[in-house]
Amino acid sequence: MQIESIGAIHSPFKAIADMPIQPSGAKGQLGRIELEPKLAAGLTDLEGFSHIIVLYYFHCAGKTALTVTPFLDPEPHGVFATRAPTRPNHIGLSVLKLNAIDGNILQVENIDILDGTPLLDLKPYVPEFDQPNEDIRTGWIRKNPAGVQTARSDQRFA
Amino acid sequence: MQIESIGAIHSPFKAIADMPIQPSGAKGQLGRIELEPKLAAGLTDLEGFSHIIVLYYFHCAGKTALTVTPFLDPEPHGVFATRAPTRPNHIGLSVLKLNAIDGNILQVENIDILDGTPLLDLKPYVPEFDQPNEDIRTGWIRKNPAGVQTARSDQRFA
Predict the structure, then answer these.
(1) Among A110, A130, A140, beta carbon nearest to B45
(2) pLDDT tens sequence across A64-95
(3) Is A1 among the domain residues?
(4) B155 falls within a domain
């Protein structure tokens, strides 16, 4: 299994504390994804999509923890029931708005990702693929789903 | 950067040809995810979520190709504008229905994943995190988004 960084993500967020914790808490925040130039041909026709799924490596997650207390709840939960970075594979996922592509550079919006984060993959966001059409339950998050819009990070996962 | 398999995904699909190409083409298909037993504590409280984001390794993607002709269109596109497995990092993503958890075993539905696929991560699916609330455009896929429900795979990405 060979997985490597394929670029770098740039954002206004230079430290892991006081960041938005999801794109819905980062409305209008602009960022830039620099794909390795040799891979730029892979972006052909991506500009037709308004949103992209960005997979990246939580390079500042200092550890793995199977039980975490997330930013949105004072109670601990299993790490797979959260989006915390201290999961066994430190892979993050954000659905970002795609504003423009110029060569190997993508201009994105609603970015909730730390500056300098290594990029793993880009996928087009497609509601017919990515939105379940069954009833959705959201476990512990349903206590306060709107909290994600204002919650900010701290150092707990460093 | 250290990324490793954390379990195995089991499904009715034993070969890469003639498979559904997305969960929306795999309605009712049942599967099983076996997380490594030592990580089972990380599943605590995940059963409150009806759907999970499953990240996995396309272990049968035999190559990387920056330009691909996807199953849903006769025209070639950049691989990052598709969900084809022959992307630089062979990481796949499916949003599956979660029916039950017993210890380290997850029973899932709508599975579009090859039997024996290595698991990379599990995340709770949360509309407030994962569904953009802006207008969505879907590029070349908008020609035939419903095609995903009946399209089946072939050997082209082996």
Answers:
(1) A140
(2) 999 999 999 999 999 999 999 999 999 999 99
(3) no
(4) no
* Overall pTM surpassing 0.95 (yes/no): yes
Q: How far is A137 from chain B (nearest CA, A)?
A: 5
Q: Based on the structure, what is the number of domains in chain B?
A: 1
Cβ–Cβ contact B50 with A under 8 A: yes
Count of A–B CB contacts within 8 Å? 242
Q: What six digits make up the tokens of B11? A: 């499904």
Which domain does A51 fall in, by range?
7-149
Residue B2 belongs to some domain of the structure: no
B158 found inside a domain: no
| Nearest residue in chain A measured CA to CA from B58 | A1
Question: Do the Cβ atoms of B80 and A46 come within 8 Å?
Answer: yes
| CATH code at position B53 | 2.40.30.70
Separation in Å, CA of B9 to nearest CA in chain A: 16
Per CB-CB distance under 8 Å, the chain B contacts of A82 are 124
Q: Is A102 on the interface with B (CB under 8 A)?
A: no
Q: Digits of tens for pLDDT over chain B (158 positions)?
A: 889 999 999 999 999 999 999 999 999 999 999 999 999 999 999 999 999 999 999 999 989 999 999 999 999 999 999 999 999 999 999 999 999 999 999 999 999 999 999 999 999 999 999 999 999 999 999 998 889 999 999 999 99
